[in-house]
Here is the input.
Amino acid sequence: MKVTVGWSHRRLADAVRAWLSLSILLALVCGTVPIWGNEYLMDTVTTFLIVSAMVVAWQTFMGNSGIVSFGHVAFFAVGAYLSAILTIPPEIKEVALPSLPPMFQQVQLGSIATVIAAATAGGVVAVAIGLAFTRMEGNAMGIATFALLVMMYSLILNWESVTRGGRGIYAVPCNVTLTSALIALVVVAGVALLFKASPTGLRLQASRDDPLAAQALGVHLMAVRLAGWVLSAIIMAAGGSLWAQTVLAFGPSSFYFRDTFNMLAMLIIGGQASVTGAVAGCALVTVISELFRYPERGMTIGFIQIPELPGLVHLVIALLIMGTLILRPSGLLGSRELTFPAWQWLRTLKKRRLI
Amino acid sequence: MQALSGVTLELSESTILGLIGPNGSGKTTLVNIITGVLRPDAGQVFVGDIDATGWRPDHICRLGVGRTFQIARLFGSLTVRENVEVGVMARPEVDVDDRVMHLLDRFSLTQWASTWVSDLPYGVERRLGIALALGIQPRFLLLDEPAAGLNEEESDQLLSMIRGIREDPEFRCGILIIDHDLRLIFRLCDSVHVLSEGKTIAEATPQEIRRNQAVIESYLGKRYEDEDAELR
Here is the structure.
């Protein structure tokens, strides 16, 4: 069956298998969470799923293009702030954001419409910026994204009529559950794997390895980079929207170095070239963060008193990054995607005409 | 300093043209100009009737010009199959999987299909480079030192492969081949174009080029009084 001209059906089939494998694994793991009846665990896993979606978004551009982007948090911010504006009840906006344009003062959208609006806004901003950025050589573009991070932070901090500046946004309704976060990550992973398997994705990966050789095979560098950039931004902004509707209150500090560092760490540790790696990296960093949060705050184990150790979590994550880059530079999963052995058995049985 | 001056070269479909000359004579520079990697200060590049001077490499590729590089430029983080797919996908009207399998088979790469390019032996890399360029179904194929680093047996296999490409109705492309292996050039090419210090010093059949005094002098650095002297 021809799906579309120019696609490799083999790559498409591999992507579908990887997606199903990852989705089943996520569903199994998340399905056990409510059994524990622990609300903190539910919140942590919900946040993990949403942050994973954003790390996958980051991977969609960075992993396929090989261009390090420090500025993706800008799209996260676009999604988060726009969602706050679209979902906070009008009577609260009247007090908290009195200078908003009347159109935004009165509107209150549901979760899905908000996510779509946020994704669209992220895409529009990405096109505007990407048309300039993707003309640059790879390294120059990476540095330019750093400027994007700083610009967006400055904008958030100072555009008080829309963002409330340093005081932060509050009263965002909680519209996201564990189930909806799981569905979001499954959809995002599907889109990311589809892009990776697509002709555009493969051309972008080729440009990552050797831009000149890629051009010699007809690859339009700017076009493929722009495609990856915009898709990545759309997903990132959608993730920001879901995140805002989970944390319910946030400020500019969530969209600067700390979160950039955390999410990049997840991607580097898990494997930049792998969607499964992005999720695995997020899981590992989340677990480590939770484990070391207790000694970071100081604790007593028996008669041993551990003092407060501020920054311990970030120190451990930084050491993990260094260790990964030294011992396994391609990350835990490299460019491999999860695929259950069962798929290989099914393929073998089919080849032998046993099924 | 001029890398090239007054060089005119014409390649027809279904012919093999050799381009030789000492190191630094401008051979690769000429190929880079033709394929859009470098922009010439003067002169023009025509692909058929289309003036492609100064076009980007991907634009020129879409006109039907494929090339390999002096040092194999492959996509190291992709498998052999994926490398070939990149070229084949330039022609969206074809069935990608069928075409990829066909090219892998044609160039004896099937056993390496799932191997990472970074793990390939040198000779296989060279074959893969040619398979990549042919994936775009070029009208003109430019091979930049395809025999570099190959032993005599591998060089003979390469010669058969290139002859096969010219004779295969599937490809029918004009082939420009740069190489320092004069044995390969003289056995393979319909005609030979010789550069020295950025200028054309001869264009003729291989037999005539072997005996051309100017060519001999450019390679050996001195004139031979013996009229029977020839390049081998």
